[in-house]
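Q: What structure does this chain adopt?
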Amino acid sequence: MITPSNIQERLAAIRLLLMDVDGTLTDGSIILDSHGVESKQFNVRDGMGISLVHQANVATGLITARTSSIVQQRAKELNITYVMQGVQQKGDAARSVMMEAGVTSLQTAYIGDDVNDVDAFEAVGIKFAVGDAAGRLKMLADVILNKDGGRGAVREAVEQILAAKEALNRGK
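A:
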């Protein structure tokens, strides 16, 4: 577990931000119409947060257990580099993305909401749980966000990362 004394230093080191989708970038609702067409709702502030973290030279990626063309479309809109869908072992996926991105676990953060994110949590250096995350995930998190999934949690995590990077740069 990260101590309060080094959390800012650890956040400032982040070079890769990985995220779950359903329950993290969305509120977890999966809407199917009578023709089986799926829709998801994304938060525009989370999208802006992703754009801002890119400006700080932090790469981003999505790791999700489900497969959806909507996720691919949203990732393209936001210039998210790494998109892994249909993943059951999120820790293996996270390690694969880290290797491809050329970063270490200590340079990687993950944002999740439920027990299928535990494996990813074990692979990364900073573990964010959205405000309405499952209790088990919150127990493992380094940072429990105030905002719920799909309601600005990703933006909140990004703001913490960016604030830590700014503080480090001011201190140099």
